[in-house]
Q: What sequence folds into this?
């Protein structure tokens, strides 16, 4: 009989129970506002009184710390090198009321981490999830091996898209590959930077029809975030949107999404 511990390390994460409170945020394409959304969503959950952890899993191109203007003493690089535990790399972001595991921007070595090391990280992350109400994984753009491996850890996966044709096709490609590799995860869609609620629904409809027709999947719409110039300004000033412009349209939309997530069964 094959047990989880007898499996090769790179496969162990498949056998681990998926924490329902762990949410991966992915996109087939870069530039859709994925990291900004991960930060703002974590912040919104924290403002609701939830214990939240934001994990920067964009290996090699991490930028959560940059968007928040942080210079953490420790980061994910130390964990993957075996010098630190995940707990030691976890730092509080007091201004937002949540914790962060920062990545390391511009470190190409992290993108080439062996599967066995990612598997060990995943085991530690699953254990860490027990101390939080929500763990948000900000994954790298694309469908590379490390992205898919981290996605397997999560109980659900938010795929972020915009109305750009390349964003839609890449989001579809991510969902298709997840299905082909039998990644058992609840996929939900967020349309970001929509010019209006109606246009956001049209964008979701296009992706939904493609998934239903060719994959026999019916992903749910988790929410639509309207295009908002205040998002760019908050990023420029390295300040969370909910702090700088708490009543902005995009802030309101993300808070509504956070409320939907918080209402899901735990």
A:
């Amino acid at each position: 009989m094959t047990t989880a511990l007898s499996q090769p390390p790179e496969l162990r994460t498949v056998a681990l129970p998926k924490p329902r409170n762990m949410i991966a945020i992915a996109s087939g394409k870069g530039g859709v506002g994925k990291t900004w959304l991960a930060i703002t969503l974590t912040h919104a959950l924290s403002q609701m009184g939830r214990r939240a952890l934001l994990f920067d899993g964009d290996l090699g191109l991490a930028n959560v710390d940059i968007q928040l203007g942080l210079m953490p003493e420790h980061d994910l690089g130390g964990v993957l090198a075996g010098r630190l535990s995940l707990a030691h790399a976890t730092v509080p972001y007091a201004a937002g009321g949540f914790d962060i595991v920062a990545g390391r921007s511009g470190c190409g070595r992290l993108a080439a981490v062996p599967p066995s090391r990612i598997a060990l990280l995943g085991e530690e992350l699953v254990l860490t999830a027990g101390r939080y109400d929500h763990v948000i994984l900000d994954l790298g753009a694309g469908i590379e091996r490390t992205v898919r491996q981290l996605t397997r850890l999560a109980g659900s996966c938010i795929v972020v898209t915009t109305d750009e044709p390349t964003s839609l096709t890449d989001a579809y490609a991510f969902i298709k590959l997840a299905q082909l590799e039998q990644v058992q995860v609840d996929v939900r869609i967020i349309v970001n930077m929509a010019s209006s609620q109606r246009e956001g629904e049209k964008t979701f409809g296009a992706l939904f029809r493609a998934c239903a027709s060719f994959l026999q999947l019916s992903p749910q719409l988790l929410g639509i975030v309207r295009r908002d110039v205040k998002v760019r300004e908050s990023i420029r000033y390295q300040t969370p949107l909910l702090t700088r412009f708490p009543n902005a349209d995009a802030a309101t939309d993300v808070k509504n999404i956070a409320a939907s997530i918080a209402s899901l069964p735990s």
